[in-house]
Amino acid sequence: MAVERIVIENCAIATVDGGDTEYASGHIVVAGNRIESVGAGRAPDDLENVVRRIDGTGHLATPGLVNTHHHFYQWITRGLATDHNLFNWLVALYPTWARIDEKMAYSAAQGSLAMMARGGVTTAMDHHYVYPRGSGDLSGAIIRAARETGVRFTLARGSMDRGKSDGGLPPDFAVETLDGALAATEATIDEHHDASFDAMTQIAVAPCSPFSVSTELLRQGAELARRKGVRLHTHGSETVEEEQFCKELFGMGPTDYFESTGWLGEDVWMAHCVHMNDSDIAAFARTSTGVAHCPSSNARLAAGIARVPDMLAAGVPVGLGVDGTASNESGELHTELRNALLINRLGAHREAALNARQALRLGTFGGAQVLGRASQIGSLEPGKLADLVLWKLDTLAHASIADPVTALVFGAAAPVTLSLVNGRPVVEDGRLLHVDEDAIARSTREEAQRLAGIAGRD
Prior knowledge:
- With about 450 residues, the protein is α/β, with parallel strands linked by helices.
- It contains 14 helices and 17 strands.
- It has helices at about 85-95, 100-115, 140-150, 180-190, 215-230, 240-250, 255-260, 280-285, 295-300, 310-315, 335-345, 355-370, 405-410, 435-455; strands spanning about 5-15, 20-30, 35-40, 50-55, 60-65, 65, 120-130, 150-160, 200-205, 230-235, 270, 290-295, 320, 390, 415-420, 425-430, 430.
- The strands form 2 sheets. Strands 1, 2, 3, 4, 5, 14, 15, 16 and 17 form a 9-stranded mixed beta sheet that branches. It has an 8-stranded parallel beta sheet with strand order 6-7-8-9-10-11-12-13.
- The N and C termini lie far apart (about 60 Å).
- The relative contact order is 0.16.
C-alpha cells in the first residue's frame, strides 16, 4: 500500500537542525510517520498520494516541544502552598499526595497531558514516584492517559524508600521497600518499554531525590537501568538545603554523591540543577549528563536561577521541563521558552544569557537529547519522525513582530493550528482531537475535591 503524504507549505520554518536552518516561506512533506522533505518555497506539485495539503500562511512550523520533567499527579493539587519554599512546600503537600489512587492518577495525567499537548508538546514525560500501598496500577493509568492523548511519552518510574520514620518527608505508607521498588520498576520496564525508533512509550528508572531514597536504591537503580538498557532520571542540586544535606550525611556535595552511586553518564538526566559550581558543571559536561531546566518551578519555589548559559557553553545537554503543576500551575511548556530566556537574563550573563533561538532549541532538540531521542525527534529533518507544530502568528498578539521565532519566544503564547505526532494530527485549531477537554476538566475537578476530602479526614 502506498504511503500517504501530508504537505504543509507557505509557512515560515525553524528546523532547529545542526545549522539552525530556517525558511521565510517553505514546505514540509510528511510521508507516513516520517519527515520526507523540508525546503524553501512550495512543495512539488507531482507528489503522489497526498491526502492533505495545508496552507501555512501566517504560521511558523517548528519541531514539537519536548518536555523533560513533570509530575502529572500534582494536577489535582494545584494552587496550594503558594507562598512556600521547596522544603516547606513538600512538608505541606506530602500528606495529601500520599492519598492518591489509580483513578486520581489517571485523571491528573489526563489534565497534565491535555494542557501540554494543546500547547505544542509532542513528547511528554512524567516522573511519578508516589506509590501508596493499595493505590492500584498507577503507572498503567498514566501510560493509558498518554496513549489516549496521542503524544509520545516517557514514564520515569520513580520510587522512594525513605519514609518519615527513616528521616524522610513522606508518610511511611507512601514509600516502598528497596526490593519492592526495584521489582516494581523492572516489571514496568518489561511490560511497557519500547526501544524501537518510533516508540510511543518508553520507561526510565527514576528514584526521587537524594533526601527521599537510600544510597542503595540509587546504586541498584542505576545497575537495573543499565542492565535493561533504559535511561536514568532524578532530582539534583535543586536547593542549597539539598547540598547541605548531602554534605552532612555523605560528606560530599550532590554531584560527587551522584557520581559515587553511578548516577553520572550519557544515559542520565537530572531535574533542576540550580546550585551547580564550576566543578559540578564540568563533571556533567565530561559525562554528558543531561539537565531538565524548569524555570517557572524554580521561581515559584524560590529555588534560584540555574546556570544554563554556563552549562550550554560547557557542552551539557539541557532541555526544558514544566515540572509538577503544584509548582507551575499553568502546566504548559511553551511558556517555558519565554521564562527560560527571561529568568536567565536575571543571572550573571544578563542580556547575553540566552536568545530566542537558543530558547527554542532548549524546548525541542535539547529535550530530545536529554531523553536520548535526538536521532529521532527534536528537529525538522528528512528521515526523522513527523512530530511538528504549526504556530499561528498572524493575529493581534504577534502582528507587529517581524521575526517569527522572536514572536514565538518573546511574545504571547501562540495558538497551535496543527500538531502532528508520528505523522498523526493530535491538535487542530487549538483543540485536542482524541480526548474531550471539557470532560477532563470536570474529572480533574472532581478528583481534586475527592482527594482534598480524603486528606482532610486524616
